[in-house]
Design a protein that fits this description.
The structure is a homodimer.
Chain A (H helix, E strand, L loop, with lengths): L18 H15 L6 H8 L3 H8 L2 H23 L6 H16 L1 H6 L2 H9 L4 H27 L9 H18 L6 H15 L2
Chain A binds a DNA duplex (30 and 30 nucleotides) through helix 3.
DNA sequence: CGATTTAAAGACCAATTGGTCTATATATCG
DNA sequence: CGATATATAGACCAATTGGTCTTTAAATCG
């Protein structure tokens, strides 16, 4: 028996903008420009909010950034949960996972980069809130990849001597490195071949 | 018969500070804080120069940054030239190369990060001068690693099916990814084992 | 309606930004 | 010495920074 929401229903003019959409637009700005290079006017333009509304809704620039980062991380983990779904064939899942990174690392997307990697480099060392999120993301990603590799091993699809947890760490470093190298817009075909070559070292 | 330097010897008070040392100190600041987060007073404090001297010697913040970046790149390439010296055994060279990255990715060094990766993420997409330097560095690194792998292959030290140029691209992505993951200060022993596991997939 | 709440617009703020310029001291030359 | 060149210290600048606050309009309620 689910209760109706117990909060007092608000009495005045209701909120007229979509907070999540605003976070998403702000995320886009931080993603393209980085934290320090993003100025308030950029965020106001992107969210189409007034200064007052933005500060009322999010507190300050840093809090809004954390919301945007959380959104980015959640999106990435959701994507991985689809690609590496335990009901799929694990090697196919790993291929999809790598192909996704190759895709995001090529051309304009590649040049735009990755909010997570950029944030790791720009803030993770100095900002504890950010640092915890970045570390948590890498851990979560590694766990998912390791799990997929484990299932591949169970299905006897892994090459001799490949240990899932170790190979997972290799793959995590590799894909994050892809995001770095992708800033110089290498050719898609090259990246895809590189990713394939790495995975081929792991599978039977 | 080498001529004396043909430039007019300067007539006034000679420069009394070491330009290269100033670049190196500035590099340290950019390295620790990133480009946008570095303010002029930070650079003046680090270089112990007055505003006037700094602008006279380097033009502006951006030019000084490029000098610092060039210095960082030159140092990195010099290091690689030693580690991957053709007169050394190539696999030992590759081990030294990876061990160097593991070392720089652990603990305080790891948390400080890598000026090159941070710059790639912060500026490479928007700043053409920076973009060219980053792309050039990755290309130079890849060439050196590929060369070492080629020599290893000639010495029949490579596992079956390992292609030097492809494996070099994998290693470049891997080490740059290490620098990203290193921002969350993972354990040295884990990173070393991960690097070893990767290299072991390539050698016979 | 009137009370309440939120929105947008923009004035306003102190602090900081990158950068210029002046004054003055100092070091080297012929 | 006098000319030349460079150093430092710091005043100064317009523009921008993140952030607050006030005003006014709109939207919902009882």
């Amino acid at each position: 028996m689910s209760r109706q929401t117990p909060v007092q229903l608000p009495r005045g003019r209701p909120r007229s903008f979509d907070v999540d959409a605003a976070v998403e637009r702000a995320m886009g700005v931080f993603w393209s420009r980085g934290y320090h290079a993003t100025a308030l006017p950029d965020l106001l333009r992107a969210t189409k909010l007034s200064r007052g509304s933005l500060y009322a809704a999010f507190g300050d620039k840093h809090s809004l950034f954390l919301r945007a980062l959380d959104r980015y991380i959640a999106d990435a983990l959701t994507r991985m949960d689809i690609e590496l779904d335990p009901r799929r064939e694990p090697v196919a899942g790993l291929r999809a996972y790598l192909a996704g990174y190759v895709d995001r690392t090529t051309g304009a997307k590649g040049r735009r980069g990755c909010l997570l990697v950029a944030t790791a480099m720009e803030l993770a060392g100095q900002d504890a809130e950010v640092g915890r999120r970045i570390a948590g993301f890498f851990k979560a990603m590694e766990a998912r990849v390791a799990d997929a590799l484990s299932r591949a091993k169970t299905a006897d699809k892994l090459a001799d001597g490949v240990e899932p947890s170790s190979a997972a760490r290799i793959l995590v470093c590799f894909v994050e490195g892809l995001r770095v190298v992708g800033k110089t817009a290498p050719r898609r075909i090259t990246l895809q071949a590189t990713a394939d070559a790495l995975l081929d070292r792991f599978i039977r």
